[in-house]
């Protein structure tokens, strides 16, 4: 009896049994302890990797592999489960905060050609020479994340192995080059396969093979995110041009994810892209998406020492449209311990959070963020406001008002309508807001 008997199907059956019994009852039934170091992460759930492997042996070979017959380390359970296409992580990493990968991709003609060949378009991997270079576990990982049989690939040099090892599935990726971010995505499969790398890209004569091969999810080209914003959010030098693959520290990653609005999870609604496109069309007064050159007609700006930062997200452009209606031009974004606010109007001590849609989900998100921001603000907050591109449902407006939050929505052109929360509700909720009276920018 050995772990080599395991199949992907037997592991899935063990996971299903664990889901039915619960983790503790599952371990107790088969005589396993809780995972000390490595857990199996599957479809958002976390499982004791050694217990799953031992019980999976029962489904594969008819008998449970007892805990005393094998170890749960890198060279046993981790290797076998990874071979079958499963994700195994250290316990501390399973619940870790997401990191960000900054990947140079467009700095010279050769890298631009590679970008066009394997990143700007998906590469089939089910048949042909790519399939022949994939181990079974690697192929299983690819099919799990890319069930249509094609994926967008990029790579990193061997000297970046330790950086790539810090990353996890769905971590945001920024592809850089030519002084701005060329594309954003989320990390898919990570494969350490030099043969595959050499088939995808000819090795560089000076630096060698990109032996770290990875795929990406939700790839999106961007045209308006310049290096200044990354430098300011993450605290990099004003002269940094991001020529090396890097994984910022966790605090820098948090600032980038929050400040740039990067996605780290599956989009819970497929309507988000449509909502953003519709808002952008409305803001530009046209039926089709605006051209890149017009991105600069409406921007949301905030100042940092010696630098002015511009955000070009749909919400930021809605904020900019509203900001143009204010009598006080000094409205700014606040950087708090829990993230960046969309706008703070000092004339009214009004903290504003914008959303691309007035759907119930976005109303709830705005409510939670505003209360969180207010509790961490380093200045007196007199008013909380949720800004939408259209009027929310009456029930959602009542929900905001219950928590003392104004509802502000756009009617078109330069016209905004404010539905004020009852003063009694606002006064009741103020006790949960910051009482710090600092008024400096």
Automatic annotation (TrEMBL):
Domain called ScoMcrA-like N-terminal head: residue spans: 4-89
Domain of life: Bacteria
Name the record gives this protein: ScoMcrA-like N-terminal head domain-containing protein
Species the sequence originates in: Catenuloplanes nepalensis
């Amino acid at each position: 009896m050995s772990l080599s008997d395991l199949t992907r199907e037997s592991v899935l059956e063990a996971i299903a049994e664990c889901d039915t019994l619960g983790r503790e009852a599952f371990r107790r039934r088969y005589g396993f302890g809780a995972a000390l170091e490595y857990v199996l992460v599957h479809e958002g759930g976390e499982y004791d990797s050694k217990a799953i492997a031992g019980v999976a042996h029962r489904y594969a070979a008819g008998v449970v592999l007892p805990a005393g017959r094998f170890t749960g380390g890198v060279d046993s359970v981790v290797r076998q489960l990874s071979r079958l296409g499963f994700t195994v992580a250290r316990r501390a990493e399973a619940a870790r905060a997401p990191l960000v990968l900054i990947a140079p991709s467009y700095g010279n003609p050769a890298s631009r050609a590679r970008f066009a060949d394997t990143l700007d378009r998906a590469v089939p991997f089910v048949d042909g020479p790519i399939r022949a270079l994939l181990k079974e576990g690697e192929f299983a990982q690819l099919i799990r994340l890319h069930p249509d049989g094609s994926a967008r690939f990029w790579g990193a040099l061997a000297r970046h192995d330790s950086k790539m090892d810090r990353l996890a599935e769905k971590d945001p990726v920024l592809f850089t080059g030519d002084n701005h971010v060329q594309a954003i995505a989320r990390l898919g499969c990570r494969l350490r396969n030099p043969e595959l790398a050499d088939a995808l890209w000819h090795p560089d004569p000076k630096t060698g093979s990109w032996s770290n091969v990875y795929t990406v999810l939700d790839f999106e080209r961007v045209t308006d995110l310049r290096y200044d914003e990354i430098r300011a959010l993450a605290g990099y030098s004003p002269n940094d041009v991001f020529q090396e693959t890097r994984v910022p520290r966790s605090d820098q990653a948090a600032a980038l994810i929050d400040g740039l609005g990067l996605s780290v999870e599956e989009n819970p609604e497929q309507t988000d892209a449509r909502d953003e496109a519709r808002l952008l069309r409305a803001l530009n007064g046209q039926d089709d998406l605006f051209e890149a050159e017009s991105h600069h007609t409406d921007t949301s700006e905030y100042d940092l020492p010696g630098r002015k930062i511009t955000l070009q997200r749909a919400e930021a452009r809605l904020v900019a449209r509203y900001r143009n209606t204010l009598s006080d031009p000094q409205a700014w974004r606040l950087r708090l311990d829990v993230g960046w606010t969309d706008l703070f109007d000092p004339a009214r001590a009004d903290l504003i959070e914008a959303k691309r849609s007035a759907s119930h989900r976005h109303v709830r998100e705005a409510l939670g963020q505003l209360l969180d921001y207010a509790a961490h603000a380093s200045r007196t907050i007199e008013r909380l406001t949720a800004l939408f591109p259209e009027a929310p449902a009456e029930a959602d407006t009542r929900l905001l008002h219950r928590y003392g939050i104004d509802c502000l929505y756009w009617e078109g052109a330069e016209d905004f309508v404010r539905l004020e929360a009852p003063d009694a509700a606002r006064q009741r909720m103020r006790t949960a807001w910051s009482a710090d009276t600092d008024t400096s920018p």
